[in-house]
Amino acid sequence: MQLEVLDLIIIGLYLLSTVVIGIYLKKQASKNMESYFLGGNSLPWYMLGLSNASGMFDISGTMWMVYLCFVYGLKSVWIPWLWPAFNQIFLMIYLSIWLRRSNVLTGAEWIRTRFGDGTGGKLSHMVVVFFAILSCLGFLSYGFIGIGKFIEIFIPWSYVGQFMPFDLTAEQVPYVYGILFTTIATFYVVMGGMLSIVWTDVLQFGIMTVSAIVIAGIAMFQVDADTLMGMVPEGWNSPLFNYDLHMDWSAYIPSVNDKISNDGFSPFSIFFMMMLFKGFFASMAGPAPNFDMQKILSTKSPKEAAKMSGFVSAVMFLPRYLMIGGFTILAVVYFSGDINAAGSGFDFENILPMAIKEFVPSGLMGLLLAGLLAAFMSTFASTVNAAPAYLVNDIYLRYINPNASGKLQMRASYIISASVVVLSTIIGLYVEDINSVLQWIVSALYGGYIAANFLKWHWWRFNGHGFFWGMAAGIAASMVFPLVFKETLELYYFPLLFVVSLIGSVAGTLLTAPTEEKTLMNFYKTVKPWGFWGPIKRKVMEKDPSFESNKDFKKDMFNVVTGIVWQSMLTLLPLYIVIKEEMGILSTAAILIITTLILKKNWYDKLPEEPIKVPENKEEKELVSAN
User: Fold this and answer.
1) CA distance readout (Å), 145 to 1, 169, 174, 271, 531
2) Which end of the chain is more exposed for a tag (fewer CB within 10 A), N or C?
3) Chain-centre distance of CA 301, in angstroms?
C-alpha cells in the first residue's frame, strides 16, 4: 500500500512548518547561549512539558510497546519500568527542583557546583562530558536509519524514484530517507535552538494526540470485546500477576510462547522486584545529561521545573496508551492468522506498521505518519541540541576560547550542531561495527552511571574522585559482565554491577581529600538536598542561623509512592477504555482521582516559590557562581 496524494501533502506541510518555525525563531534564539540552549529560561513550563512528552513518544519505543501489549496484555504496563518509566515521578516530586536551583547551562557545568574546580572536579567534569557526547553520538548514529526503514514501508522508492534522476539499491533507500528527515530536523535545531525544538514539539504532540484518539476510536468501533477475549489467553486483560505470568498462548498462537520464553521476564515476580530495585536507585540518581536534563534547566524556576516534569506524565501516557491499545487489539483480532502462518519467523515489532497499513484511512495515515515522524524528529532534535551544549559550554568556552564574544559563541554553536549530525551520520553510514560498539559503550555508560550519581545528591563526603572512579568502575563492569553472564538480562546482574560501582565510588572518595568546604556549603545552601549532609548543614547554620534545612524526606517518599500509583493508573485507564472493560475503567479512574487529590494537597500546593534570576552575560554568571 502506498500513500495517497493527500497523505503526502499532509506530511509535506508538517515538514515545511518545522522549517518555517526554525527560521522565524532564529533571531530570538541567537541572542546568547542561554537563549539558544535553554530558550532564555522564558518558555512556559507546560510547553516544555509537552516538548518533553513529545520527545519520549518515539517510534521505536511505540513499536516495542505494541509488541509487549500484544504478547503480555495489560501486564505489559509494568515492563517499561526497565527504563525506568517512573523516573519522571522522582523528578516531579523533588529532583527537578534540586537540579533547577543550580542555575547552570548543562549537567557537566552542574558538576562544578558540586565538586569544585580541583583535580576531582575536573575528572568528574570530564567523565560527564564524555558520557553526554558519546550518548548523543550513539543515538544519532543509528537513529536516522530506523526512521528511514519505517518510512520506506509507506513510501517505496519505486514510487519516489520515478521523479528522481537517479536510482538506488534496496540497501541505500533507508539511508537516503533517513538523511532527508535528519537534515530537516537539524535545520530547525541549528536555526532556532531550544525555542524551535519546543514550538515544533508542541505541534508534533498535537498531531500525535489527535492520531492516538482516532486510532483508539477505529479499534473500538471495529473490535467487539467478546471477540477479543476469545482470541487471547486467560489473564491477558488483567495487570495482576502471581509468582509467574501463566500466560499460555498454545491454543491461540503457539509461537508467542517461544517469544515469552526468549524475553526472559519469568519468573515475573522476581523480574518485577528487580525492576523496582534498579528503578529506585536509577531514579534517585537523577536525569542523565541529555535532553531531559536540558528541558529541566530551561524552566523559569524550581517550581516550574517540578510542574513541567509532572506534566510530562499527565499528558503523555493517556494518548500514547490509547494508540498502543488500539493497534494491539486490531492486530490480535485481524493478524492472528498471519502470525500463526509465519510461525516463529514472525517479527512482532512489525505489528505497528502492519496495522497502520491495514486500518488507517487516507488522510489520517498522512497525519499519523507525520506524527510518528514528529516523534522521531523531536527526540533527534533534542539530542542534537544537547550535544553541542556540552561541546560549546564545557569544552570550547572552558578550554579553547574562554573569551569568545557572544557572536562567536553562536557561530560555534551552529557549526558544532551541524558537525555532530554529520559525524554521527558518517558513522552510521560507513562503519556498521562502530554502531554496535557505540551502543555497547553507551549501555556501559548507563550501567556505571547510577551509583555515583545517586551518591552525589545524598552524601556530603562524596567527592569528584569518588564520582570519577565510581563511574569508571561501573563502566568497566558493564563492559565485562555481558561477556561473563552470557544470555542473562542485565537486570539480573545489576545488583552486582551496582556494588562494584559503589565500591569504586566509596574507595575513590575515602582515599582522597574532601571537596573544598566552601564549594560544599554553597551547593548545600543553594540546592537544599536531604540526605547525609550533617557536617555541612551545621556549618551553614553557624554562618546563617536563619537557614532552613530540607526536612521533606518522608513527605517526598510518600509522594513518590503515590505518584507511581498515579502514573500506573494513567497507563492502565486508556487500555481498559480500548478493550471496553467497565470494572477496570471505574476502578482505575477512582484510584486516579484519589491519587490526584493527594498529590494536589501534599505536593502541588507545597511547591516552593523560588524565582531564580537568569544570568544575562558571562561576567554576571561568574559572579553568581562565585557567590
Assistant:
1) 21, 15, 6, 32, 44
2) C
3) 21
The 3-state secondary structure of 524-556 reads: HHHHCCCCECHHHHHHHHHHCCCCCCCCCHHHH
Is residue 485 classed as helix, strand or coil in its secondary structure? Answer: coil
Contacts 24+ apart (CB under 8 A), 160-167: none
Instruction: Identify the three-state secondary structure at position 532.
Output: strand
C-alpha grid cell, residue 4? 495517497
Cα 573 to Cα 73, 77, 178, 239, 326, distances in angstroms = 13, 11, 35, 11, 13
CB 491 within 8 A of CB 498: no
Give the residue among 147, 65, 214 at the shortest CA–CA distance from 379.
147
Amino acid at 481: F
Which residue do the cell numbers 510530562 mark? 312
Q: Which of 156, 177, 154, 157 has its CA nearest to residue 168?
A: 157
How far apart (Å, rounded) are the C-alpha atoms in residues 343 and 373? 31
Give this prediction's pTM: 0.87
Going from the first residue of the chain to its last (627 residues), give the mean pLDDT of each consecutive group of 10, the final group possibly shorter.
Answer: 76 82 73 67 88 76 88 94 92 96 82 90 84 73 65 72 71 77 72 75 84 91 94 94 89 90 88 92 86 84 95 94 94 90 78 82 81 70 70 79 81 80 72 53 70 95 96 88 83 91 96 95 95 96 93 97 98 97 96 98 92 48 39
Q: Which amino acid is at 122?
A: K
Burial of 130 (0-12, 13-18, 19+ CB in 10 A): middle
- Specify the length of the chain in residues: 627
Contact 175, 145 (CB under 8 A): yes
Cα dihedral 71, 73, 75, 76 in deg (nearest 10):
60
